[in-house]
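Support request, please re-run this one:
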Amino acid sequence: MLIITKPLELPTVLGYDHRVRDDGTYDTVSLVDYLLSQVMTFAPAVLEAERHLLKRDEDVAVTLRSCNGAFEARTVLAVPAQYFRMVLARLNHTYLDGQLYGGCARRTLAQGGRAMVVTIHTGNEGAGGFWLRVTSSGSSPLPLL
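Re-run finished. Output below.
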């Protein structure tokens, strides 16, 4: 597992318009920022999604669940199936230090004056499927200087 301790600043994104734009594009950068904001805001939490190989055209539900029972599991949003791999690529490139076709990293994210360690696992290969899992364990003991 790749361990990255230097904090990466994450913008706070409180909402996200997940619709495909009129020109056919999809804002994966803001989407990933929004998803990571969710897992940090509701820490300790797990964010999960999987695109089933047999259901290629169905939207991919992204769910958030509490690690300590503080809230019920809920669907954060649904990503159009054709854009889900772009979401994985954004996660892998930016937050997993370029592990393009899947990987795992534990890294420190900073947001709103606090730092938190998150663990990110992704699968972005045909045979292994397309999935993500992001776990936040709560506030990190690492202070922001």
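Strands lie at 2-9, 45-51, 60-66, 74-79, 102-111, 114-125, 129-139. The radius of gyration is 15 Å.
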